[in-house]
Structures are given as structure tokens and as C-alpha cells.
């Protein structure tokens, strides 16, 4: 099966680090692709839409050459795009993995924890990339950040800067997103971090209870679970992916 990985707010494919390579090693029968959201990465010169549905349509177009069925793995806002995509193409999207995501089914103070919104907006408005990226890492990760990681994230922003306008558009899309009441047809897995200081893990619990989806919660990782504990994610995926054909 082909899997598509989708990052979150103002992040791009390079922020996955070596996660795709780890997945390819762990699951040699599957293929993993990374696609940037509009306004980020290779599309950083584009204007980002301000709704999840419009962002999803852009990503769908980029993924057109990839034959189905496909699996989607989305982190944070990438999870919202993946969820919307699964509803839009039920015959194509067979599997769905959502990491630290949220929807309009949860209250605003859980979707963006108190204090996190102000910090996020303040960081997005920073004109100094060094300060901005250091702040984003401090907000999204619960692990000591090495100089190598900080340098890599700073280099990403310097090469393909996300504009404040696009950051705000993505934020508007995320906070306004509410999926349809019925669950997508795809087989799904929810992963969340108990230590997430941006999105409360109860947002994932709400989806799990609403649609009877399995939920695994990391005890202390931050919002960027891929950065904090990628091996834990792979361990949860082992049983989930290997139970499915493809």
C-alpha cells in the first residue's frame, strides 16, 4: 500500500526528519510519500486556503499520480486534512492514522490549550527565524532539543519561509474545521500525547468514543510526537498496518 504523510501548521516535509526512512525500514511492503500543504515546503510561494476542504483539494491534486488504495498519516492539522480526505474519497482511502489532531467536536479550549494560541501567534509574527523556530520547538517538543535539530529547522525556514499570511490562513482553517457527523469508511487509528501543551489529548479521545476508533496515548511526549518519540509511533503502527492487506 502507498501511504501519504501530512504535516501540520506551518510545517513541511523536511520536518519529518528521518521518519519516512524509519517507516520504510519497518514496513518494507509499503511505500511512503510526503506531500507539502499549500503555503509550505515546495509550495511556500503559494497562498494557503483558509479552509481544510480547500487545502485537502490541493493536496489531493498533488497525490493524483499515486494509485489507490492509499493510507493517510496526518499530524495535527495534517490529521484534519487526512480526515477530510477520507470522507471525500472513501473508496480510495483505506487506512487512516491521526496524530495529536482535533476537530470541532471538541471545545475550543481543548483544541488550542489556554496560552498556546497567544504563543503560537506571537511566534508566527516573529521576523527573526532563529527566535521563531526555537520557540516553536520549545512549544511542540517535550524533549531536550539538540543544536542539530534546531539548526535543521532553522535551515528549513530560511530556505522555504512560511509567510505570516499563510500561517494565519492555516490557523483559521484548523480552528474552524468540523467534520461530518458520520465516521469515514477507512480503518482508523488515533495516537495522542498526554504531554501535548497545544492540543489536549482529550480531542483524540472524543473522536475515539464518537466513532469507536482505537486510541493509544503516549505518557509524556509533546505535540510533535514524531520528533519526541518516533519509535513509539512505529510500535503502535506495527499491529495496525500489518493486520491489513496491501
Strand-helix topology:
Layout: E1 2-6, H1 19-26, E2 31-34, H2 52-62, E3 70-75, H3 77-88, E4 93-99, H4 108-111, H5 116-125, H6 129-140, H7 147-159, H8 164-175, E5 187-193, H9 202-211, E6 215-218, H10 225-228, H11 230-242
Radius of gyration: 16 Å
Number of strands: 6
Q: Write out the strand line-up for the largest beta sheet, numbering strands in chain order.
A: 2-1-3-4-5-6
Identify low-pLDDT runs.
Answer: none
Instruction: Give the CA-CA distance, first to last residue.
Output: 5 Å
The helix fraction, in percent, is 40-55%
Structural class: alpha/beta
Shape: globular
User: Beta-strand level of the residues, as a percent range?
Assistant: 5-15%
Could you describe the 3D structure shown?
With 246 residues, the protein is of the alpha/beta class. It has helices spanning 19-26, 52-62, 77-88, 108-111, 116-125, 129-140, 147-159, 164-175, 202-211, 225-228, 230-242; strands at residues 2-6, 31-34, 70-75, 93-99, 187-193, 215-218. The protein has a six-stranded parallel beta sheet with strand order 2-1-3-4-5-6, sandwiched between helices. The chain is globular and about 45 Å long.
Quick rundown:
The protein is an alpha/beta fold and 246 residues long. The chain is 44% helix and 13% strand.
Question: What are the defining features of this structure?
Answer:
246 residues; alpha/beta; six-stranded parallel beta sheet
Amino acid at each position: 500500500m502507498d501511504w501519504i504523510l501530512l504535516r501540520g501548521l506551518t510545517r513541511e516535509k523536511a520536518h519529518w526528519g528521518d521518519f519516512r526512512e524509519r517507516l520504510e525500514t519497518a514496513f518494507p511492503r509499503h511505500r511512503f510519500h510526503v506531500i507539502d500543504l499549500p503555503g509550505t515546503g515546495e509550495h511556500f510561494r503559494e497562498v494557503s486556503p483558509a479552509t481544510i476542504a480547500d487545502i485537502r483539494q490541493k493536496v489531493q491534486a498533488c497525490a493524483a499520480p499515486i494509485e489507490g488504495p492509499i493510507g493517510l498519516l496526518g499530524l495535527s492539522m495534517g490529521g484534519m486534512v487526512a480526515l477530510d480526505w477520507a470522507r471525500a474519497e472513501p473508496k480510495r482511502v483505506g487506512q487512516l492514522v491521526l496524530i495529536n489532531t482535533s476537530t470541532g467536536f471538541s471545545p475550543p479550549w481543548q483544541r488550542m490549550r489556554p496560552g498556546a494560541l497567544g504563543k503560537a501567534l506571537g511566534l508566527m509574527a516573529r521576523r527573526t527565524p532563529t527566535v521563531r523556530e526555537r520557540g516553536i520547538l520549545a512549544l511542540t517538543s517535550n524533549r531536550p532539543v539538540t543544536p542539530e535539530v534546531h539548526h535543521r529547522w532553522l535551515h528549513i525556514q530560511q530556505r522555504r519561509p512560511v509567510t505570516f499570511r499563510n500561517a494565519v490562513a492555516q490557523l483559521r482553517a484548523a480552528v474552524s474545521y468540523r467534520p461530518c457527523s458520520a465516521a469515514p469508511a477507512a480503518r482508523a487509528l488515533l495516537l495522542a500525547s498526554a504531554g501535548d501543551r497545544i492540543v489536549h489529548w482529550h480531542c483524540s479521545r472524543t473522536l475515539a468514543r464518537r466513532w469507536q476508533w482505537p486510541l493509544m496515548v503516549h505518557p509524556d511526549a509533546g505535540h510533535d510526537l514524531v520528533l519526541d518519540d518516533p519509535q513509539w509511533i512505529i510500535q503502535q503502527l506495527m499491529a495496525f498496518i500489518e493486520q491489513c492487506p496491501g
